[in-house]
Amino acid sequence: MLIANALTAEFRAFEEALQSCPAKRFAERPSYGHTAAWHALHVMDWTRCMIQPGLNGVNPDLTYSFLGFENQSWAQAATGPTLAQEQDGKDVILVAVQNTFAEALAAIRDAPDERFSSDAVWKAINKPRPVLESLMYHVTHTAYHRGQTRQVINQVNSLALRLADPSRPKFGNSWLQTRRRQGSPINISGSPTVEQTIREDRGHLLDE
What architecture is domain 2-164? Predict the structure, then answer.
């Protein structure tokens, strides 16, 4: 089945992206946007929300924590406990994601043929939508968050490398070098010199 194959491939690629993130960076927030853990849980919750046995639409008994759209009433009404949280760690989150993906693919493969007709509609979380259109959208939605996850991993890994580099300039270095070229550094009474501050590592790092 084409839709099942497309989702299988995208779910696998998304899992590979998540696996590539070091465990200690999994819940580390980048300079902008969400953590890798959040992207994992977001796709997990939307998969749980959209793909249920029989492909009949949303199960009203389920709640979610990572749908986004926090200001929308339909999302607020469905907010509640989910399968994992950002602070649970990479291994716990990946197991929850993998189990959710497996259940979703089983639901698609076991669904009756009429659920894949062009006329088939299910009740989505805030309005009725065609089944096939929704499933294909979920493929692209997962692919989008795979790309976002790759960007997050690149950011947090890059930041970690820069923070660990002993030769990385500290805050004030360029100003100190300018003062050295111009003459003696300013020394305010009762305060350490700029040189003392930097030598004793009391200056803030550029990334802080």
Answer: Up-down Bundle (1.20)
Residue 128 host element (H or E): strand 128-130
User: Residue ranges of the alpha helices (H) in 165-206?
Assistant: 173-182, 194-199
Question: Is the Cβ–Cβ distance between 50 and 134 less than 8 Å?
Answer: yes
CA pair distance 8, 133, nearest whole angstrom = 17
Q: 73-115 pLDDT, tens per residue?
A: 999 999 999 999 999 999 999 999 999 999 999 999 999 999 9
The domain segmentation of the chain, as residue ranges, is 2-164, 169-208
Confidence (pLDDT) at 197: 38
Q: Helical H runs in 20-119?
A: 36-50, 73-77, 90-110
Residue 28: HSE in the Cβ half-sphere, 13 Å Cα cutoff: 18
Q: Which residues are bridge partners to 64 per DSSP?
A: 79
- The owner of tokens 């993906």 is 101
Q: Which candidate, 56, 75, 35, 21, places its Cα nearest to that of 129?
A: 56
Q: Which residue has the tokens 């998540």?
A: 18
pLDDT tens for 27-85 read 998 888 899 999 999 999 999 999 999 999 999 999 999 999 989 999 999 999 999 99
